[in-house]
Design brief:
This protein is an alpha/beta fold. The protein has six helices and nine strands; from the N terminus they run βββαββαβαααβαββ. The strands form two sheets. A five-stranded parallel beta sheet has the order 6-7-8-3-9, with helices on both faces. Helix 3 (97-107) packs across helix 5 (139-151). The model has no long low-confidence stretch (mean pLDDT 94). This is Heme exporter protein A. It comes from Methylomagnum ishizawai. Pfam families: ABC_tran. Residues 8-209 form the ABC transporter domain.
């Protein structure tokens, strides 16, 4: 989608760890249909940047804008359009796979259509695990549950911190297909990964020094 204006914009972001700057003066934009991969050495601030972009942590300086407006000024509307996948998956071990997805939607005041639930679980290869408690799943299967929650949501912006964690070769290919499909529908994403990412249409890369 060349020529499309950015929907997500970072303006002169600065992030500190204690008194030490992880990055400063950081500006960029991500347009609909684009996938950005944030690269950098351990400790360079990749996770911190994703948390700032998701509105979970404030920057020391600078601002993040969504559709032209500072996210701090339209927080509820912004959160309704974002899907965040971090190191903590936010799953409830005692609930079933299906119950976890329905619970996530209920927290946002939404109902999850049964057909959409089944479609999402089928996409990630867990349809036959829908009634199993999450505690009975492997780490890779739990990651797939979190991915199903993401693809079943209406989120236009995906922010993914190491989405390939605990996944096998098939799971890695699955994430790449989901990203391609999301971009093809006009969605956008920012992700970190130690795994090589290969997408049809390519990636925009941002390197933190």
């Amino acid at each position: 989608m060349t020529g499309t204006l950015p929907a997500l914009e970072a303006h002169r972001l600065e992030c500190l760890r204690g008194d030490i700057p992880l990055f400063s003066g950081l500006s960029f934009g991500v347009a609909p249909g684009q996938i950005m991969q944030v690269e950098g050495a351990n400790g360079s601030g990749k996770t911190s940047l994703l948390r700032i972009l998701a509105g979970l942590s404030p920057p020391h300086e600078g601002e993040v804008r969504w559709r032209g407006t500072r996210i701090a000024h339209r927080r509820a509307a912004f959160l309704a359009e974002i899907g965040y996948l971090g190191h903590h998956l936010g799953l409830k071990a005692e609930l079933s796979v299906g119950e976890n997805l329905r619970f996530a939607f209920a927290l946002n005041g939404l109902d999850l259509d049964p057909q959409k639930l089944e479609q999402a679980l089928d996409q990630v290869g867990l349809l036959d695990r829908m009634d199993l408690p999450v505690r009975a799943l492997s780490a890779g299967q739990r990651q797939r549950v979190a991915l199903a929650r993401l693809v079943s949501s209406p989120a236009a912006l995906w922010i993914l911190d190491e989405p390939f964690t605990a996944l096998d070769v098939g799971g890695i290919a699955l994430v790449q297909r989901l990203l391609e499909h999301h971009a093809a529908r006009g969605g956008l994403a920012v992700l970190t990964s130690h795994q090589a990412v290969e997408l049809r249409g390519g990636l925009v890369k941002l390197t933190l020094a």
